[in-house]
Amino acid sequence: VDGYNRVIGLEDVYAIGDQCIMPNVDKAYPGGHPQLAQVAIQQGKLLAKNLIREQKGKKLKTFQYKNLGSMATIGRNKAVAEFSLFKTQGFIAWVLWLVVHLRSILGIRNRIVVLLNWLWNYVNYNQSLRLIFRAGRDKTEEEIQQAVQQKDSN
Q1: Mean pLDDT of 103-121
Q2: Structure pTM?
Q3: Residues 3, 30 contacting (CB under 8 angstroms)
Q4: Alpha helix locations (H) across the chain?
Q5: Which of 46, 79, 87, 131 has a beta carbon 3.0–4.6 Å from 73's, enabling a disulfide?
Q6: How many whole angstroms separate alpha carbon 36 and alpha carbon 20?
Q7: What is the Cα–Cα distance from 13 to 111, expressed in whole angstroms?
Q8: If we measure between CA atoms, which residue out of 31, 97, 38 comes closest to residue 66?
Q9: Quick one: residue 97, left, alpha or beta (phi over 0 = left, psi -120 to 50 = alpha)?
Q10: Residue 87 and residue 77 in contact, taking contact as beta carbons nearer than 8 Å
């Protein structure tokens, strides 16, 4: 896409977020922006404003990504958080992650439901939804070597 999220080569077609690559528009991201929700949110807000500007005959604004930081949970009571002013990890980053994600949920009722769900899962240690089961058994080293030799002989 170009700097206004217009799909190059198509008329009146726009793309934001993971659906687009915006190379050489933002000097800090010459190969395109990171595939994060924050990029899509910022692109969507600017695109909406640009569509209104276009209807009014005003000049469009080019997208410039403002990195608000990155966060990730990496386990129970563990997370990492990196912002422009500071970096943190462990329990503090985990609490920050919870607060940021609760704030992004629309509606008080939805926030309360999510918070209660998180509290329940935290207290009862129910991990069943996070387990991945694989049918069958793993192949032994010997079986793997036999398969490789058979493949090489073909």
Answers
A1: 91
A2: 0.66
A3: no
A4: 37-55, 91-103, 108-124, 141-153
A5: 79
A6: 12
A7: 35
A8: 38
A9: alpha
A10: no
